[in-house]
């Protein structure tokens, strides 16, 4: 396990302890442990300990991974990508953090239409990945990434407040400037494989 993984584990222990500990000595210890985790996380990334502590303090309840959903929308032998307004204008699959109150499929459909303008039918789940172990850029919180194959049923290409360009790309013409926080080239390649054949869900 990496230092980042250890710090996340310490933060999760502190957060869960704060969720269940009664007022008093133990609670103060969990708060102190959370402050230590914030200082360690800040040191790992040359960040501001107070800012990290604020991120940690905003989390409450039993500590669990966050959920990121991504839609693999195909048109012929091409896949839909959107250019992010953030992250240096890099390309990615449409998607984002799952919202409370929506199913995973509803979240994907919402993200696709918001970021690309296309209405989709979410056909099947094909990958469930631990972001930290999949090779993505390290982040503060643990997250699971859910990838779904989608089919266009309406709409038209349209940018949004989050995107500046919408395009379809062949498997051998995926842009080099991908947002590696969001998607990796090998994941896109695997999505094409899932599109060509009904394979078991990938998970790790």
Primary descriptors:
204 residues; alpha+beta; eight-stranded mixed beta sheet
The shape, in one word, is: elongated
Distance between the termini: 15 Å
What proportion of the residues form beta strands (DSSP E)? Answer: 25-35%
Mean pLDDT: 93
Q: Which segments are poorly predicted (pLDDT under 50) over 5 or more consecutive residues? A: none
- The total count of helices amounts to 6
CATH homologous superfamily heading of the largest domain: Nucleoside Triphosphate Pyrophosphohydrolase
> In CATH, what is the class of the largest domain?
Alpha Beta
CATH structural architecture of the largest domain: Alpha-Beta Complex
**Any idea what the radius of gyration is?**
19 Å
Major sheet attributes: 8 strands, mixed
Oligomer: single chain
Class computed from helices, strands and strand pairing: alpha+beta
Task: Please give the structural blueprint.
Layout: H1 3-20, H2 25-45, H3 49-57, E1 66-75, E2 78-84, E3 91-92, E4 95-97, H4 104-116, E5 118-130, H5 131-134, E6 143-155, E7 163-170, H6 185-196, E8 202-203
Parallel strand pairs: 1-6, 5-8
Antiparallel strand pairs: 1-2, 1-4, 2-3, 2-7, 5-6
Helix pairs in contact: 1-2, 2-3
């Amino acid at each position: 396990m990496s230092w980042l993984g250890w710090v996340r584990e310490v933060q999760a222990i502190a957060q869960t302890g704060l969720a269940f500990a009664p007022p008093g000595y133990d609670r103060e210890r969990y708060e102190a442990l959370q402050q230590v985790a914030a200082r360690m996380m800040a040191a790992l990334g040359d960040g501001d300990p107070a800012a990290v502590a604020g991120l940690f303090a905003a989390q409450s309840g039993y500590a669990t991974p966050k959920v990121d959903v991504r839609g693999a929308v195909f048109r012929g032998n091409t896949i839909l990508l959107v250019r992010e307004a953030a992250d240096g204008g890099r390309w990615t699959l449409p998607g984002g953090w799952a919202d409370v109150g929506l199913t995973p499929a509803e979240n994907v459909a919402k993200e696709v239409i918001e970021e690309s303008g296309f209405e989709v039918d979410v056909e099947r789940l094909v990958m469930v990945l631990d972001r930290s172990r999949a090779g993505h850029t390290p982040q503060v919180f643990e997250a699971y990434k859910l990838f779904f194959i989608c089919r266009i049923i309406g709409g038209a290409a349209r940018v949004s407040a989050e995107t500046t360009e919408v395009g379809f790309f062949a498997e051998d013409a995926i842009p080099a400037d991908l947002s590696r926080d969001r998607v990796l080239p090998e994941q896109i390649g695997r999505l094409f494989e899932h599109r060509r054949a009904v394979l078991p869900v990938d998970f790790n």
